[in-house]
Amino acid sequence: MMRLYPLRFMSCDINVDFVRSSFLSYSISLSLLALSVLFILLKGFNFGIDFVGGAVLEVSASKNCDVVQMRKVLISLECGDVSVYSSGLEHSKNITIKVAKNNKGKLNDVTSVIKKSLLENFPNDNLKYLSSEFVGPQINSYLIKSGIKAIIFALLGVALYVWLRFKLSFAIGILLTLVHNVLITLGVASSINLDFNQSTVAALLIIIGYCVNDSIVIYDRIVFNMKINNKIDSSVINSSINQTLSRTFLTSITTLLANVSLIVFGSHSIFSFSVLVFSGIMIGTYASIMLSGPLLLVLSRCIVGKMR
């Protein structure tokens, strides 16, 4: 009979003292949080048409029109966040071009530059402009409020679940860890000028879900070891993190590899989304290993007191 062995990334005997290095972890996290807040406040975000408004052009073209090349041409104009989508018909293509409003010029001037560039680069594709309209601020403010509400409700919902599943100190710990992950991820988006649109909100929700999954595994192991030792101390925290370390790394590496393929081979429309998810998974993995356990120990001793 064939024996099955569990897949492990590292030895079962590994014993890293994560609690002792918690001061370094806190220092790194506080520095990253400070940098992220500075980038967000001083530089802001590269908002897409979903949030700042812009122009939407509907274009009819021949069936053989190269939409990928068209997207590259429009991006090279540096007119702001540009999205290009197409739907094929029997003898032609309907192409939708979305251009976000920016500070480089009026939308009318930007659309004129786009039309001129398309005519110069695609003279044989029978381009016909079907419509041109502008997205107003009322829709954008609604999307912003909806996105913020979605993230807040996700954070509170996760904290409530963890409170009911474990203890109050666990809920506070995971909430602080998630806020840490989201803020630093937003700092990354601001610092490298990623497009900020509806897919960004989706990426943040994915990151929240992934980070919760990582932290819950560690917390569940901490509860298991607490029942054995009848207490929570640094040895319980360290052993719990070490016991789940192989699983954490394997899950993160396989997820990151899949995400790298999206970054390298995916289209420009999902590039910002893919980079943001990649960054969030990296930050979340670091936080679940280096912060979630030691932070829980601090909370159980100083904030919540004796665990009930």
From TrEMBL:
This protein is called Protein-export membrane protein SecF
Q: Per its UniProt record, what Gene3D superfamilies does this chain match?
A: Multidrug efflux transporter AcrB transmembrane domain
This protein's assembly is summarised as:
Forms a complex with SecD. Part of the essential Sec protein translocation apparatus which comprises SecA, SecYEG and auxiliary proteins SecDF-YajC and YidC.
This protein's record includes keyword Heme = no
> What are the GO BP annotations of this UniProt entry?
intracellular protein transmembrane transport; protein targeting; protein transport by the Sec complex
Q: Which domain of life is it from?
A: Bacteria
Keywords of the record: Cell membrane, Membrane, Protein transport, Translocation, Transmembrane, Transmembrane helix, Transport
Any one GO molecular function term: protein-transporting ATPase activity
Membrane-related topology note = Multi-pass membrane protein
Q: Which Pfam families match?
A: Sec_GG, SecD_SecF_C
Q: Where are the transmembrane segments?
A: 21-42, 142-163, 170-189, 201-224, 245-265, 271-299
Q: Where does it localize?
A: Cell membrane
Q: Which GO terms describe its cellular component?
A: plasma membrane
According to its UniProt entry, this protein's organism is Candidatus Sneabacter namystus
Is Transmembrane helix given among the entry's keywords? yes
Domain Protein export membrane protein SecD/SecF C-terminal residue range list = 117-300
Function summary: Part of the Sec protein translocase complex. Interacts with the SecYEG preprotein conducting channel. SecDF uses the proton motive force (PMF) to complete protein translocation after the ATP-dependent function of SecA.
> Which family does the UniProt entry place this protein in?
Belongs to the SecD/SecF family. SecF subfamily.
Q: Which SUPFAM superfamilies match?
A: Multidrug efflux transporter AcrB transmembrane domain
The gene name on file is secF
Q: Which InterPro entries does the record cross-reference, listed alphabetically?
A: SecD/SecF_arch_bac, SecD/SecF_bac, SecD/SecF_CS, SecD_SecF_C, SecD_SecF_C_bact, SecF_bac
